[in-house]
Write a structure and sequence with these properties.
The chain is mostly beta strands. It has one domain. The chain contains 2 helices and 14 strands. The strands form 3 sheets. Strands 1, 4, 5, 6, 13 and 14 form a 6-stranded antiparallel β-sheet that branches. The protein has a 4-stranded antiparallel β-sheet with strand order 3-2-12-11, with no helix packed on it. Strands 7-8-9-10 form a 4-stranded antiparallel β-sheet, with helices on one face. A hairpin with a 6-residue loop joins strand 8 and strand 9. The protein starts with a helix and ends in a 6-residue tail after the last strand. The N terminus is likely disordered.
Amino acid sequence: MRIFESICACAALIAITCTAEAASVPAALHNKAISVSFAVSSNAVCDSGGAGGPRQVQRTIYINSKGRIFSQTESRLGSSVAETVQRSPEDPTMNFRFEGNRLIGVSTHFASGANQLVITFDPGFQTCTATMQFGRESGKVFKFRGVNGEMCTVTGVPTASTPSCSIRAGNPFAQ
């Protein structure tokens, strides 16, 4: 499957050092937060036999003054079940890199499968658009742990709605 091969190729960039990563981040995005919101749907069956419902996801990416990239993902299933996961630049399950005016993030934290978030910026890095795609290795199922902790198996791969994307100054994780 070509999508998964592309995602795997992106994940192979784990070996890039934080210094090299920081050097490739456009200075216009230093000390900025990028927020991406989308809904994820899948034809999933979870361990309890229930169906994995659609999840609302808010991913916040912060690029500090040194160009290091941090992220936080909040997933919500309905109005009551939520999960928040923070990832540092050293986390091997979430990798970011820049290609020109695009920030590409590959997440491999699933039991099997991966996703790729591509954020495209305008020339001045003031606005953004985003796309999200999921992939899995040929012949294998996509598996993930739901926000309620259950392991879920997907027929095919999950799909994401068209994400919304915005940029703002400052550190959203500062307390």
